[in-house]
Amino acid sequence: MGHPSARGWFVHLFLNGLYWGIYNLTERPSASFVAHHFGGSSLNYDSRNADKILLGDSNAWTHLFSLLNAGVSDPSGWDELNRLIDLPAFADFILLNLYGGNADWDRSSNWYAARRRVPPGPFHFFVWDRERTLEFADVDLLSADDDQSPLRLFQILRKNPAFQRILSLQAHKHLSAAGALGASPAAARFPALSRVLETAITAESARWGDYRRFIHPYKTGPFERYTREAHWRPEVQRILRDFFPQAFLGPRGITSTG
Asked: Which long-range contacts does 79-83 make (Cβ < 8 Å, 24+ apart)?
């Protein structure tokens, strides 16, 4: 979608010689990451992982939510909001999470945000630890809300006609047939990623495939032994067959959120 995001690659992990499975060795979108992409020293940034302040302070963050929760109804308030958030980038962040049906982005969950403090800059939001996505194509997150989180920002901003126009433009750009979230580009991207793991996942299943069955039964049985053939490949096909086409068509109203 055209924004900086954490880069990573898949590795086999050994701990003191013991095979531990497949991991995604990944950058963290913290202050040093943001400084690398937007310039300056990491010491000049406010950086947070959800409700945890990693660097800097929460003054601008508190000011942002005070402004929003009080209601932005005048031009001066809108101008201040534009100084505090990169609104087109935030619209893309929202679209991506709605599209993926993310179930893990409340105030204390998995997302990063950072802004340049000296000189003052807007907050940028970064996806992180998104394993709770691509689960069900009919998940509707349009009413999800939680203070001090991107969810609250979205719920307040979506009432503003100016942000509605921004969101509509970004939705048209990314949800079009050739856009980043279009059915064909998404369906082409996902197999390319899954093929990287097609062979390696056998080692993962050999290490952890019986974990739920014999070591840590979860919820109620019957407990299965996870394998590539019975679980990995069918899940890849489910996402290709059931998720991308429906998410693109917008059954949850994504194409009309503006």
From this structure: 82/122, 83/120, 83/122
Q: CA-CA distance, 91 to 154, in Å (whole number)?
A: 8
Positive or negative: CA dihedral 84, 87, 89, 92: positive
pLDDT digits (tens, 9 = 90+) for 144-183: 999 999 999 999 999 889 999 999 999 999 998 889 998 8
The two three-digit tokens of residue 179, written as one number: 């856009």
Q: How many C-beta atoms surround the C-beta of residue 118 within 10 A?
A: 11
Q: What is the pLDDT of residues 183-222, one digit of tens each?
A: 889 888 999 999 999 999 999 999 999 988 888 888 888 8
Helix (H, G, I), strand (E, B) or coil at 43: helix
Distance CA 226, CA 231 (A): 6
